[in-house]
Design a protein that fits this description.
mainly alpha, 7 helices
Length: 128
């Protein structure tokens, strides 16, 4: 029960962060400020910064997660981070975040086809 409440609070905090990032214009938040916000979100969710998370093997990350709700939150956060990178015209970073999100999921997860499609469009040499 305590772990469930803790994870729900983390997910709520992440939702608030995503809402604040989505409502801010590029003039309101510098690229560094956006990265700091995402680092804070990753820290709250899994206890590591985005850089540490990227350097950690996906299987080790999955082992650190408490349950499916936390996995879902991490995948959503990674995809949201990718969206922020697209918005900031950084498709290579966006593709890396989508690839990380995919690495956390099993092959039969229903989110995989959509994420693969997003990844392909971001890593395509004919991006528009």
């Amino acid at each position: 029960m305590f772990v469930d409440d803790f994870i729900l609070r983390q997910i709520e905090q992440l939702a608030n962060l995503v809402a604040s990032l989505a409502s801010a214009s590029t003039e309101e938040l510098s690229e560094e400020a956006v990265d700091e916000q995402f680092d804070e979100a990753y820290e709250k969710l899994i206890g590591m910064s985005a850089d540490m998370l990227a350097a950690t093997d996906a299987s080790e990350v999955r082992r650190l997660l408490h349950d499916e709700a936390q996995l879902d939150a991490l995948v959503r956060l990674s995809v949201t981070h990718a969206d922020a990178c697209v918005y900031r015209d950084n498709p290579d970073a966006a593709a890396r975040h989508v690839a990380r999100a995919l690495s956390y999921l099993s092959d039969d997860d229903p989110r995989v086809p959509d994420l693969l499609e997003r990844f392909a469009s971001m890593s395509s040499p004919t991006r528009t």
